[in-house]
Predict the 3D structure of the following.
Amino acid sequence: MISIKNLHASIGDKEILRGINLEVKAGEVHAIMGPNGSGKSTLSSVLAGREDYDVTEGEVTFNGKDLLELSAEDRAREGLFLAFQYPVEIPGVSNINFLRTALNEIRAYHGQEEMPAKDFLALVKEKSKLVELDSKLASRSVNEGFSGGEKKRNEIFQMAMLNPKLAILDETDSGLDIDALRIVASGVNKLKSKDNATILITHYQRLLDYIVPDFVHILYKGRIVKSGGKELALEMEAKGYDEIKKEFEIAD
Amino acid sequence: MSLVADNKSAVTQTLLDQLQSKSSKVAFMPDAEIISAIRYLEDKGIPNNKHEDYKYCNIEAVLRKEFKSVEQAFNELTKADIAPLKIDEAINLVVVNGNYNEALSEKMIVKGLTVKSLNELSSSEKGLLSSQAKSDTDALIALNTAFTGNGLFLQVDKNNIIPMPLHVIYVNSGNSSNVTNTRNFVNIQASAEATLIESFYNIGTAKVFSNFVSEKFVGENAKLTCYAFQNEGALSYSVNTNQVRINKYSNYTNNTFTLSGELVRNNHNVVLADSNCEAHLNGLFISNGTQQIDNHTLIDHQMPHCESNELYKGIAKDKSVGTFNGKIFVRKDAQKTNAYQSSKNILMSDDATINTKPQLEIYADDVKCSHGTSTGKIDTEALFYLKARGIGEESARKLLLQAFAQELIDKIEIPSLQERVLNLFEKAL
Ligand SMILES: Nc1ncnc2c1ncn2[C@@H]1O[C@H](COP(=O)(O)OP(=O)(O)OP(=O)(O)O)[C@@H](O)[C@H]1O
Ligand SMILES: [Mg+2]
């Protein structure tokens, strides 16, 4: 699905990613954990195509294509989806209009016709049920005035609508109450298939109780310093990052 | 006299000479009015950027560069020329090169409505002219007064509600460079109501300096809702002055949409002359190339318990320049005034410029006034968010700019006008 080799990225002259290696195959769920500021959101932004970062070294192949060569919109059209840690409010653009435009541009990219309005509305109805998103939210401006939890749910709703191959969920669990967490997690689980893959970025084992990862990676100072199975997350939760920090202290 | 002053009067004098030799005498304007207008012009000159109110809008330079000689030669227009400019839901009235053209206008008898040319005014009606727009306040008003065309007089008699909008199509048709001075008077008497659309076009083949003056009077408990649709194209340089006076319990709204025009200067001045009235001024422009769009408003609160609201938005592309200068006066008797003003702009290129200048002068102590301006680039976070969902750069920009403009486009209550504005707006994006 995606293969990341020796990825280095910086902003200005500050290097944030310092050689990331990661291989995710179809059907897999990977979790990335790590202390604040270690570069988790940067990794997801770089993969999604945010232009603020310079990739200085390394390569990323996404379903056989050179991901780094593609524009942000083409990455999305190729099936990459990022659930933002901080979803952006866009006053004046309705959620529905936004999603219709997105869906149809993705379809056009694949040579498909626009989805008929009736089918689109049916899809909205079906997918908003999946994350129990209040139907009123669909007609409101994108994320405007949404509560923290509503924003996160809206991310997963969009994911359900766009049906990506690879979803990167950047701290989608933070800010969710227990019920919402369960709903979002079950939504993600329902969307899982042998043909798609998920990268979960999280600070909490709690999410991983619901969405069980095949692999867990620890990101620290721009590198994946440790990888393991789901038990690694439990270990980190119990011990914290002190040991990792000591072991991998890198002079800035 | 300094060299600068010499040059200044030279431009004005050349223009005056040419217009005097090429225009016929204005019959309905009193001689004394014309003479004092010309005197004011000779004295002050057409304003340049040293004039505080024209700092970002050098009219004198435009006349010097683009209107060295004016020919005042025009093409005849036919009904077919006008047809595409009409608005279906409205009574369409046509003013060509400053003169009301009855043959091209729709005839309809509506109770309480008077439509006639300024030449046809009774002597008491003539007294209304220049009652609001005074020659000794602004050189462009003076120019218009001295050389005004046979414009339009619209009146709604008291207690009458005009059921459909009135649409005045101002169209210029010069075939060599020309100056038009269009004038009208809109008189909405007590407890009357009307909706007025004013559209501005140039379908001529030459440059036009279009100097428009409208006097609007809104009587006690009356309501006037106006739309200005400005789409004069690249050959047009225009100054549009609205001098409005509104009275007790009245309601005046104006929405200006500027979609083209090489230079568009709007002076929208509203006097809230009595208590408990309200004025709403809104504007939206989108500019590209080297266009200059300049909105000046003056809200003059003279009496207590009145409200004014202003919302102006602009999108400046390429090397275009947008200006918003909003003055609010709250006179000492105007207690309990609520006055709000907001100007928001988006710069689409590094070479585009936005100037904003709110000016509040408050002489009463018990008032609520606020103003805010913001100018920025398109929100890159929002842009990235849209692109990250598969929406291409161009459609993403369009979505965001449409969202920015939507609240103004939503103010249009006439469907085909709204569609016209939206289409041109989308094309200009
Ligand atoms: N646009 C930016 N400008 C400057 N520094 C940045 C920028 N983006 C990220 N950084 C820095 O890069 C480092 C990594 O940030 P990042 O957001 O990727 O961390 P994170 O692992 O997602 O942290 P958290 O767990 O708090 O979300 C931080 O030190 C951050 O300040
Ligand atoms: Mg983060």
Summary: Chain A has ten helices and twelve strands. Chain A has a mean pLDDT of 92.
